[in-house]
Amino acid sequence: MGSDLKEEAIKRAKVLMVGAGGIGCELLKTLALSGFQDVHIIDMDTIEVSNLNRQFLFRQSHVGQSKAKVARDAVLKFMPHINITPYHANVKDPGFNVDFFKQFNVVLNGLDNLDARRHVNRLCLAAEVPLIESGTTGFLGQVTVHIKGRTECYECQPKPTPKTYPVCTITSTPSKVDFVRELRELFERFKKILKFVHCIVWAKDLLFAKLFGDKKQENDLFVSAGDGSDSEKPTNIFERGSDEDHEQYGRKIYDHVFGYNIEVALANEETWKSRRRPNPIFLKDVLPERLILQNGNLEKNFLTEDLPLSAMSSVGLSNPQDVWSLADNSRVFLEALRLFFGRREKEIGNLTFDKDDQLAVEFVTSAANIRASSFGISLHSLFDAKGIAGNIVHAVATTNAIIAGLIVIEAIKVLQADFQNCRMTYCLEHPARKMLLMPVEPFEANKSCYVCSEVLVELPAPVSSGTMLTVEDLQQELSCHINIKHREEFDEDKEPDKMVLLGWTAREKESQVVSNGNSTSAAVPAAAEATMKSEEAEVNAEISGTKRKLSEISEATENQEASQILPRADADNFKNSQELEDDDDDLVVLDNYPETSKKQRLH
Ligand SMILES: Nc1ncnc2c1ncn2[C@@H]1O[C@H](COP(=O)(O)OP(=O)(O)OP(=O)(O)O)[C@@H](O)[C@H]1O
Ligand SMILES: [Zn+2]
């Protein structure tokens, strides 16, 4: 295709970019430099200091301002004659409806979460606008092309399950059995510190959760002797007595989890036959009494009202990249406990670990290090521990730039209707077949995709009078119950379709119900969409916007009552959605590696 035609296609194009973060900044710059003239950008966020290392359109002075607006201004400085329209808004806002999407020739995603990606996917399907989707994680990245009727949609294939750590094996010992498979991707990066990862997970998911989270949760931090005897297992060790001060309480917890529990575990000789035996650690052996007491006095010297509570600064440690000694870790541990119970008491019982919570990170780092010490595993800095605890894979600006370039290349093909040459491209960390950028032909749509397939797939049981159909859209948290009732006669004037919809109620403001998952925020009114194409039937559809937890839904799915029939696509949807509960999913299908994938390609 001639370069004039290409230029023309670029100039005429009206492009929507969603997300002005790591990928988005690079993308806007590349679009502008490639000659695009009319770009709209939606981003709901404001600029944070942590964005500045890779979102090069932003500067320190922009912190707190709208990403979309600042990105526009930054690009207009070097390309003043193009039209850039920023929206400081959530792409899920109702204003961004099908009609809004219809005005664009192509939509480009630079998002960081599944929820928004799925939403844009559905709008693009409804508006019949091609979507170019992207994601990066560290050195890995991908760009995929989704065109209704030509390729799969973003939701045609299940996404990989977020990685979880097998807590059951963590309670007793930081072994690495079973771990490698679960953490295949992380393994490359954290090879040398795998055992420490176990300590972090123990500190975060067991100890932190036990002390500061929901007290009722099942969380066994009592290591039993494993000989079947119901050894003298203290039942309320984690409860702070009313006359117990924070200092005493901290020491009790320390000695229990690092000393007593290890002693109990050691009693089970079987466990240690092929493993290195850990050392119980009691506080008196690590910190002389004088030092423990001194601990609490330091606070007023180091803490001011403006700074976040910090146990490390309170005990005089300043560099998060230093590896602290066992004694220092013990001091941080006690101080963090003391600060939590003394200064953040109201939150106790409701806390979940948050990598941006300084005190929580300090607590988890110190606890993991003390445990690591006990098991002869090397200790790590707070910086490393935070990365592991927060599952942080550091963003790489170059990957974002490469991916942005690939998005523009695919966008230009789409704009020229050069669909044959569209490719999904994977940016790899290590060369495969001597390539770092792996192009793959787009896959064709999954016929039973509940989002893009045109018709409902076969139902697992016949629908007849008395059947109750439950259709759920987890994305929009909607549920629709349809009671099918057979009727022989219809009023030809009033019921020409030979079916009636009765008694539906919409309880939520923006309720919509969708028959085959082709849902968007601008979906047609619920009743019309809930129509069953079943002749001579009376349909009672009740639309309820009741929110249900995914766990409840999966239970319901497992124990499906006879009267509840789920279309197969929805049953799949349940499973997938449950797997995808965790939002962050920047890399979508790298598990379906190009050469190993069984998906059918387009020819
Ligand atoms: N629903 C949404 N509507 C509009 N913009 C969104 C939506 N969801 C995510 N975004 C935007 O997508 C961008 C994704 O960028 P990126 O992955 O670089 O994340 P970040 O928030 O900038 O950085 P980090 O998460 O690493 O701190 C963000 O700017 C975010 O505001
Ligand atoms: Zn699909």
UniProtKB/TrEMBL annotation:
Domain of life (superkingdom): Eukaryota
Entry keyword set: ATP-binding, Metal-binding, Nucleotide-binding, Ubl conjugation pathway, Zinc
Region (Disordered): 512-603
UniProt xrefs under Gene3D superfamilies: NAD(P)-binding Rossmann-like Domain, Ubiquitin activating enzymes (Uba3). Chain: B, domain 2, Ubiquitin-like 2 activating enzyme e1b. Chain: B, domain 3
Active site location: 168 (glycyl thioester intermediate)
Entry binding sites for Zn(2+): 153, 156, 449, 452
Compositionally biased residues, Acidic residues: 579-588
UniProt: ATP binding residues: 19-24, 43, 51-54, 67, 112-117
Pfam family, one: ThiF
Pathway(s): Protein modification; protein sumoylation
Ranges of residues in domain THIF-type NAD/FAD binding fold: 7-449
GO cellular component: cytoplasm; SUMO activating enzyme complex
Chain intervals with Polar residues compositional bias: 512-521, 554-563
InterPro entries: ThiF/MoeB/HesA, ThiF_NAD_FAD-bd, Ub_act_enz_dom_a_sf, Uba2, Ubiquitin-activating_enz
A GO molecular-function annotation: SUMO activating enzyme activity
BP-aspect Gene Ontology terms: protein sumoylation
Sequence similarity: Belongs to the ubiquitin-activating E1 family.
Quaternary state and interactors: Heterodimer.
Name of protein: SUMO-activating enzyme subunit
Taxonomic lineage from the root: Eukaryota, Viridiplantae, Streptophyta, Embryophyta, Tracheophyta
